[in-house]
Write a structure and sequence with these properties.
By secondary structure, the chain is α+β, with helices and mostly antiparallel strands. It is built from twelve helices and 18 strands.
Length: 347
């Protein structure tokens, strides 16, 4: 490492970013997690189609489903990848600016987590967004690897470890050994899909139209993946009657919400089973001993670990603070230059 590189490292404020479909988290070197906000941007569309960003993060999420025609609260990330390049760049720029304390004079080195299965074009879009938002160097690291590091798994050992990272847009199942991903499967089913299924269920069963925020609140309060004593728990849901058009309130049970989750949950289980089948036998034997680790916000779904344990017959454990697991793993890589060279590379 040259003298300029050392000075640049000292003078810059390096960042690790988990650019998620649902939330964006930023980890700053020596400061820990400094940003944890929803990946939502409120945009005003002018007459000629030009977009002006009005709010980002928490403030923009409050506007979801409540904006007038000219203002849209949008989520620029869809299924773990960039759906709107321009708005993602503005969102990144906002979070990077918010993360820099103004004391550093050189542009930051930035590590960004990406889903394992994304294309070269999508990788380039993420990299260019960060560069245009003010990065000196951009490294990309696959989410399952970051999650495994954040969960303190011995990723550099010659033993098999399975991590299941359930985010907002994608579920990533990966088997990791010797600092690399031996096998990975990504399915575009995760927290957002659970919300969509609740919206669909309320439409079909109660002819009630509810928004994304309401669906998410129901999921957090009474969502569950496996039968338990909480099944009789009741939640009042307010929405619009699709037949009469007037606002109305219905009561739903936790058991009904579990019924709504049946399809996406079976897809997640299927992805885990396929990954176990494709894992080399020596590493599969390690997974029997080490079990499966769950990370990501979707892992917080009540009793999901119990369901996976029953369907696979393997021990299942939740990573410590699943929601921040990926960005914490990214942060560890940021603070360990040798590990950075091993698990990430500029693309």
């Amino acid at each position: 490492m040259g003298i300029f590189s050392k000075i640049a490292d000292w003078l810059s404020n390096d960042l690790a970013i988990d650019l998620g479909t649902a939330n964006c988290l930023v980890f700053a070197k020596d400061r820990g997690i400094i940003v944890n906000e929803p990946s939502v941007v409120a945009v005003h569309e002018g007459f000629r189609g030009e977009k002006k960003v009005l709010a980002v993060g928490k403030e923009a999420k409050e506007m979801l489903g409540k904006t007038p025609g000219s203002i849209k609260a949008i989520r620029p990330m869809k299924d773990g990848v960039i759906a709107d390049f321009e708005v993602t760049r503005e969102m990144l720029r906002y979070f990077i600016k918010k993360s820099l304390d103004g004391s550093k004079i050189i542009k930051p080195r930035i590590i960004i987590c990406i889903p394992f299965g994304i294309t070269q074009v999508e990788r380039r879009a993420v990299k260019e967004s960060a560069e245009q938002a003010g990065a000196r160097e951009v490294y990309l690291i696959e989410e399952p690897m970051a999650a495994a590091i954040g969960a303190n798994l011995p990723i550099t050992d010659p033993s098999g470890n399975m991590i299941v990272d359930i985010g907002g847009g994608t579920t990533e199942v990966a088997v990791i050994s010797l600092g690399g991903i031996v096998y990975s499967k990504s399915v575009r089913v995760a927290g957002d899909k659970f919300d969509e299924e609740i919206i669909s269920y309320m439409k079909k069963k109660y002819s009630l139209l509810i928004g994304e925020r309401t669906a998410e609140q129901i999921k957090i309060k009474i969502g569950n993946a496996y039968p338990s004593e909480k099944d009789s728990q009741i939640e009042e849901v307010k929405g619009r009657d699709l037949i009469g058009g007037a606002p109305k309130t219905v009561e739903v049970t936790a058991e009904e919400i579990r019924e709504a989750f049946a399809d996406p949950l079976s897809e997640v289980i299927e992805a885990i089973k396929i990954s176990l089948e494709k894992t080399p036998p020596e590493l599969a034997a390690d997974i029997v001993d080490n079990g499966i680790i769950l990370a990501g916000g979707g892992a917080l779904l009540h009793n999901l670990d119990v369901l996976i344990k029953e369907k696979t017959g393997l021990p299942v454990a939740l990573a410590e603070d699943p929601l921040t697991c990926v960005v914490r793993g990214c942060g560890k890589v940021l603070e360990n230059i040798d590990l950075l060279r091993q698990v990430a590379s500029p693309h």
